[in-house]
Amino acid sequence: MNFQILIPAKALTKGKSRLAPILNGARRAALCEHLLRRILVLGTATAPTTVVTADPRVVAIAKIAGAHALLEPVDCGLNGALDWARSQAGDADCLLVMPTDLPYLSLAGLQILCMNRRSIAIVPDRRGKGTNLLFLPREAIRGFRFAFGQDSAVAHQAEAARLGMSAETIPFAEAAFDIDLPEDYTEYLSHRALDDDLARPGGANPDLGLGSEVETFCQRLPRPSHYSG
Q1: The pLDDT value given to residue 156
Q2: What Rg value do the Cα atoms of the chain yield, rounded?
């Protein structure tokens, strides 16, 4: 099976804007890079992985991680970026759209989810409203209208129905938690202690907590020392 993963990524300096009440620009950029690095390790260990972004720095990080990278000619938003990336991609038997901010998703969990996936499947967020993972079989890849944003889980179910296809909802705890709101970040910190560099203002070198092999890999990636905020 030709299984592919597509990861949309905002510019590091623009991501996680809803965390602005508790994190300055430098810390938000550091968090975004931390999450990006982590999800790239999982993605590239599972299937051919493509990152779509308007940020040249994200492109560089993705290439070092072994992923293919598509640089948007203009920043056209999440759904627009996915539409454009899909038009650039080759044939796939199954496409997984995976965001960067899934800090508790494990490699084993991701690979189990991806096994023999042949229908539209939605892994919702813990509030049951957002879509944290979206699987599209070959029959749906070209015609599916992405609807990420508010209440996207319901919108994606409706889109599957429009195509005359069923969509399976898969509650999966590892992929249910994402970091969108200040309370999400606070909860994340309460469950996983980050390195002091990220915990203090301007920090940029979080401990990934993924084991020595992954830590060694991540040390090869460029540091976001140029960020300010």
Answers
A1: 98
A2: 17
Confirm whether 95 is domain-assigned: yes
Asked if residue 137 belongs to a domain, the reply is: yes
Write the CATH number for 58: 3.90.550.10
**Contact present, 213 and 1 (Cβ < 8 Å):** no
User: Which pLDDT does position 193 carry in this prediction?
Assistant: 52
pLDDT at 130: 95
Instruction: Give yes or no for a contact between 103 and 180, defined as CB atoms under 8 angstroms apart.
Output: no
Q: 131 forms bridges with which residues in the sheet?
A: 124
In terms of residue numbers, what domain contains 33?
3-219
What averages of pLDDT result for each successive group of 10 residues across the chain (229 residues)?
Answer: 92 95 93 95 96 96 96 89 85 92 94 87 95 95 94 97 95 93 90 48 38 41 34
Torsion of CA 161, 163, 166, 169, to 10 degrees: -70
Distance (Å, rounded) from C-alpha 99 to C-alpha 7?
6
Rounded to 10 degrees, what is the CA torsion of 215, 30, 195, 35? -50
Q: CB-hemisphere CA count at 13 Å for 155?
A: 13
Q: Is residue 229 part of a domain?
A: no
Cα–Cα distance list, 171 to 24, 131, 167 (Å): 33, 11, 13
Question: How many domains is the chain built from?
Answer: 1
